[in-house]
Automatic annotation (TrEMBL):
<keyword id="KW-0418">Kinase</keyword>
<protein>
    <submittedName>
        <fullName>Uncharacterized protein</fullName>
    </submittedName>
</protein>
<keyword id="KW-0324">Glycolysis</keyword>
<keyword id="KW-0479">Metal-binding</keyword>
<keyword id="KW-0460">Magnesium</keyword>
<keyword id="KW-0808">Transferase</keyword>
<dbReference type="InterPro" id="IPR007666">
    <property type="entry name" value="ADP_PFK/GK"/>
</dbReference>
<keyword id="KW-0963">Cytoplasm</keyword>
<dbReference type="Pfam" id="PF04587">
    <property type="entry name" value="ADP_PFK_GK"/>
</dbReference>
<dbReference type="InterPro" id="IPR029056">
    <property type="entry name" value="Ribokinase-like"/>
</dbReference>
Length: 197
């Protein structure tokens, strides 16, 4: 998905393209706009540039449910079974268990490493030119009583099941000496996708 500047384009995507997709990849601003379009019928004027994991996961759950609900009402549509959101600080991948999408943990890790490599313009991750901006732990939802997940340095990608869904979150080693940003989203989304097909 590309950056959304006009509401009509997003409405057309929701009406004519998204019902026929089984996988979506986007950044945090695109998720906020898609969520706002599906829930409120308009795009968001402002979105958080470094949103909390819990907020993104809640938006992903709601977007996933709304798209699947709309697709179920149309006989010639596809069911959404994969949603990947990439942010500056982390990757989040949500898939339907038992779907054709496998290796979610590896996909989140690959997307995370690709984010660093692409922006730094390097084949290797240079720790001296990287930093973590994701918190040392995160909540799985903003709802009361949600689970907290600590960042485990030995196994930094966290995955868990929620009903029919598997969710994986990977921190990003953010490049501190950016050499390129254009095309970052495309590279990150495709890096995650290639591990799952």
């Amino acid at each position: 998905m590309a950056s959304f500047a006009e509401a009509e384009m997003l409405v057309e995507l929701v009406r004519h393209i998204i019902p026929f997709t089984d996988s979506l990849g986007m950044n945090e601003q695109e998720l906020t706009n898609l969520h706002s379009t599906l829930v409120y019928g308009n795009i968001s004027i402002v979105s958080d540039s470094i949103p909390r994991v819990a907020i993104v996961l809640d938006q992903m759950r709601q977007v996933f449910g709304l798209i699947r609900e709309k697709s179920a009402m149309t006989s010639d549509s596809r069911q959404l079974t994969r949603l990947h959101v990439h942010t500056l600080a982390y990757q989040a991948i949500m898939t339907v268990k038992g779907s054709r999408w496998k290796n979610s943990m590896a996909a989140a890790a690959k997307a995370s490493l690709t984010a660093n490599r692409h922006v730094c313009g390097s084949r290797e991750v240079d720790i001296a030119k990287a930093t973590l901006i994701m918190d040392e732990s995160f909540s799985t939802s903003i709802g009361a009583g949600s689970r907290r997940v600590p960042l485990n340095e030995e196994q930094p990608v966290s995955c868990w099941d929620e009903g029919e869904m598997e969710i994986c979150v990977a921190p990003v080693l953010v490049c501190t000496e950016a050499r390129q940003t254009a095309g970052g989203g495309d590279n990150i989304s495709s890096a995650g996708l290639v591990m799952q097909i």
